[in-house]
Amino acid sequence: MSLSSVFAQVFAQVVARVGDAAILWRRLQGSVQQQAVGTAPTIPAARPQGRIPTLKMPTARGWAPGQTPLAAPGLQVNAFATGLKHPRWIHLLPNGDVTVAEALFLPGPVKSLFGYAIVSTMKRAAAVGISPNRITLLRDADGDGVAEIREAFLEGLSQPFGMALLGDTFYVGNTDGVVAFPYKTGATRIMAPGRKLTAFKPGGHWTRSLLPSADGRKLFVGVGSLSNIGDSGMDVEQGRACIYELDLASGSSRIFASGLRNPVGLAWEPRTGMLWTVVNERDGLGDETPPDYLTSVREGGFYGWPYCYWGQTLDDRVPQDAAAVAEAITPDYALGGHTASLGLCWLPAGTLPGFPEEGMVIGQHGSWNRSTLSGYKVVFVPFANGRPTGPPRDILTGFLAPDERESYGRPVGVAIGAGGCLLVADDVGDVIWRVTGARAR
Predict the structure, then answer these.
(1) What are phi and psi of 269, to 5 degrees?
(2) CA–CA gap between residue 383 and residue 380 (Å, rounded)
(3) How far apart are the first and last CA of the chain?
(4) Does residue 118 or residue 316 have the better pLDDT?
(5) Rounded to an integer, what is the distance from CA 256 to the centroid of its chain?
(6) Is residue 398 part of a domain?
(7) What is the CATH number of the domain that holds 101?
(8) Which residues is 378 bridged to in the sheet?
(9) CA distance 374 to 326
(10) What percent of the chain has a predicted confidence (pLDDT) above 70?
(11) What range does the domain containing 103 cover?
């Protein structure tokens, strides 16, 4: 191990101890806050944390042999594939093959002691490193619920994330743009060069999720902000914190909706045909302020970032734009502060035992800047008449050690797999989990 690596580990431990002290002090200043969830959440007043924001991140441990997450009553979970490298996103092909995007965050130049603290903390949590930059194809040929065929489907990519197949073209959301590749049904590897359709600025919130329109003529692309609250000015944030609409015939793209700090998962609500997304909100204002959220996305809509949150609640740390604030839309459903809600897919009614309603499944990657950790689970939000209704319910838990010092895994992408199972990407455990009814296999 190099001297720099040893120093980084020691520094991360020092940061953790300082963070523990800051967390204890903040807890002494007030009671533990209830999670801000639902359509009418109670959001505490902002308490800016200044130069010493809360940093609390469990050490990445991984799963012991035979250990799995905990499934809700009536469900069971098994490892569909193991030994991957930071699997983030999942896409199901029409023949039942599963493609998995494997990528890691690549930090830019560290410009401050706090920046170094964040990077050191993220390294301890296995959240940064050399990116695999590939998409792996998994095939369960014998239908036993475990993928026995694994192939390098695409390699040499640039932090790939979102994927979509339309006709004979496979689309990849690289961090620096959308790329199209020729695809043949049943192929386990693509060797042909890709064709870049559009370019995005890399860095910061680097994921680029993809969702085709119902008619297959457009792709919607989630692009996150460079920084927390426009810390380096808004010029570098141009074309970010938004969802793009890419016309595949003409190659032209436009911003479909904006003011979304980090919109990751995208999904259609089939009754209304509305686009929905999950958004990671800003840091440094408290454990529950503001909450991450699930929301429908209106064409031309502005959702507040960086000027305000949850409607028109001003963020006093940011130079204001009164005209923009006046247009800010209140999101539909709060998911709790700093849950890092990333994965999103539609779950038809009755797909999983114990979940008779239709609704959205959400992979919550988990917090790193909250005095009591949040997220680290997969939840279900029930819908009725095209709208979320009722509290979220757990599908998978057990990703965290009881004392919150270690994480066995962290869920990210979610997708409905062959036979109506739920697939979950776990980028700390390096596993794709498969959730089914307790008697199904």
Answers:
(1) -90, 115
(2) 10
(3) 43
(4) 316
(5) 20
(6) yes
(7) 2.120.10.30
(8) 363, 396
(9) 31
(10) 90
(11) 64-108+130-437
Instruction: Dig out the tokens for 151 from the structure.
Output: 């192939």
**Is-above-0.90 flag for pTM?**
yes
130, amino acid identity: I
3-state secondary structure of 144: coil
Q: How far is CA 239 from the centre of its chain?
A: 20
Q: How many domains does the chain have?
A: 1
Question: Is residue 2 domain-resident?
Answer: no
DSSP 8-state assignment for residue 128: B
Per-residue pLDDT of 37-75, as tens digits, reads 999 999 999 998 876 677 788 999 999 999 999 999 999
Q: Under a CB-based contact definition with an 8 Å cutoff, are residues 161 and 427 in contact?
A: no
Span 187-234, pLDDT tens digits: 999 999 999 999 999 999 999 999 999 999 999 999 999 999 999 999
User: How would you label 407-423 residue by residue, b for 16+ Cβ within 10 Å and e otherwise?
Assistant: bbbbbbbbbbbbeebbb
Contact 154, 160 (CB under 8 A): yes
d(CA 239, CA 168): 29
306 prior amide bond cis, ω within 30: yes
**In whole angstroms, what is the distance from residue 263 CA to residue 248 CA?**
21
Residue given tokens 């897919």 in the structure block = 345
